[in-house]
What does this fold into?
Amino acid sequence: MTALVYDQKKNFQMSDSLYTKALSIDPDNPLVLNNFAYSLSERKIRLDEALEMSKYAVEQEPENSSYLDTIGWIYFQLDDYDNAKKFIQKSLEYDNNNAVVIDHLGDVFYKLNKTDKAIDLWKKALELDPDKNEIQEKINKGVL
It folds into this structure.
């Protein structure tokens, strides 16, 4: 939890250190693996390592919507939009009202040149989380 707090505060040196320490104690913990992988993917760094962590988390909990979204988001960052779509859509099968996941799927559809579908998804995400200014900007501009 402390690593997550530092991550949210954008103190990545501290969060990475804490995630690494947690994994040295419990290297197979799917929650820690997922959260660390997502943090890395958001920063677009160490994506191959993040993918391996995420794959393990999904293997351990294949119906966990957060883990499915994480692996999908990593594939997105790796420009593998087909795999990104597959995993993010699977995430929505388990949690279909998650604004972040719906926003991610909108980004995937945008990259797949399906702008109308992307905008529809971004609008749905914004309805669920109206405080997300970055989603409103994507809708207004019609681009990422």
The chain has a mean pLDDT of 96.
